[in-house]
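pasting for ref
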Amino acid sequence: MKIVTYNVNGLRPRIQQYGSLLKLLDSLDADIICFQETKLSRHDLRANLVRADGYESFFSCCTRTSDRGRSAGYSGVATFCRVKSAFLSNEVALPISAEEGFTGLLTTSKGYEPRKEECPSIAEGLECFSRDELLKVDSEGRCLITDHGHFVLFNLYGPRAVQDDSERIQFKLSFFKMLERRWECLLHQGRRIIIVGDFNIAPAAIDRCDAEPDFEKNGFRRWFRSLLVQNGGRLLDIFRAKHPDRKGAYTCWSQSTGAEEFNYGSRIDHILSAGSCLHGEEIQEGHDFVTCHVAECDILIQFQRWKPGNTPRWKGGRSIKLEGSDHVPVYTSLVEIPEVLQHSTPPLSTRYHPQVFGSQQTLVSMFTRRQTTEQVISEESESPQIPSQKEFISTPEKYHSIASQITMLGSQSNSNFLPCIATKKKARLGQGSQLTLNSFFQKRIHKSETSSSSFADSKLCQTDISYSRIEPKGVPSADDESVTSMECRSNAIANNQHECQLDACNSDKEKREVALQEWQRIHQLMQNSVPLCKGHQEPCVPRVVKKAGPNLGRRFYVCARAEGPSSNPEANCGYFKWAAVLKSKGKGK
């Protein structure tokens, strides 16, 4: 049996990368797949994102807006279980029960939408916390619990907290403190637990590329190590149990600095386990779950975005988009895991989610008349769309030609026939308020007035066109007007508009040339002002401070090479320089 944990950094882009959800899951070739940072809200749970043949899936989504203004859906976890049957199955991969969150206050195996009269009870071991405290921590979609009979599986996405963010540090402390209580309660009941996911904690110096001498003094790292058996805890870090001295074993790299190129990362994705083995009820010396049932645990480095042979950043590789997450998967293989009693998939499965299997129709929708696809296509084909004013301004010569043709058609028929052009929405032939294409070039004619015609202003030329400018002397009235005079009139309009258009085109062309020359001048000045890094004498790259503070928005320059160990001369040399600040004329220092 194989279990995989993978921070996908957005489930949508990973599905797009592989072509489908099924191909993504099959590429991992595991019985249980735990994703973190899905970045899906509950409203996003559609079949193409959550359902795949041969898999049962369970999701937990963020349901609240973050304090920093990020909308719901910025975190999220999902567990996919590969099974032959979702009903009456003995497979261990198919959960017996499933729970969203870990506090007991979110929807559990009763389904996605609990009844209003139901009042969820707080999970055992967490009674010392208030409901508000528990709900605040458990509403970011950071935990899924699936019970597989022989063990309880936790799929976690630990909060990230930078050093000077006291609010998120407190949130992270509460999150792991509550979780630890839940783990202790299950272990006290004699259950085996497996905890997988992105903890956002590198526990020891060996797990970080640039660990400082006081690296391990961090409070979260001390807490993590206190959980482990070698420090008096009850959990085993399965990867370190199998590979205690392996260096450079990282699972996450910075995307912005290209750190993958020199394997300059950290190990923050873990698989932990606790509990007795399955060989007997009595605990025997030298027997535990990891020793007896874990065959291997390793990092799937082949999923790394940076591949051997990629163009280095400083040789043009910066413009090449690397597909994939900034994390790589970690897996463990279990052996001698017997089948469990026959059971079916829990109600928390997405197969029961209303947005996946269908939604309830409203009473109004049952009586609403809907157009068929054939009707819409038919109406659109019979009713060409009126061009917008923006289209006239951008490509006037096209519509001048159309207007001339329509005018000639009208003169040949010796009538005021004009084709009625309907809009795309609510197209109706013969609608009195519908404008025609020729109406953009003619003034409206009253029913009682047939002896005189006048033409509208042409906005395309930005010039008033009157009959005194374009009509020859002695033009007869509309009743006696001949076909030849109408042709002359339309030709005069077309010629005048063509001249206006040529002037406008020449003016636009000159403006574009001036703008291009100015941009080239500015670009050259910027290139000349870019400093060379001290380590490689290569042009630096500009950056902008995005962190809130006195330097927010300020530009600076850094070495263009990928981040790496200081001992490697090919890596980033660490050069830094603030960009010059341009001061307005006439102002003091």
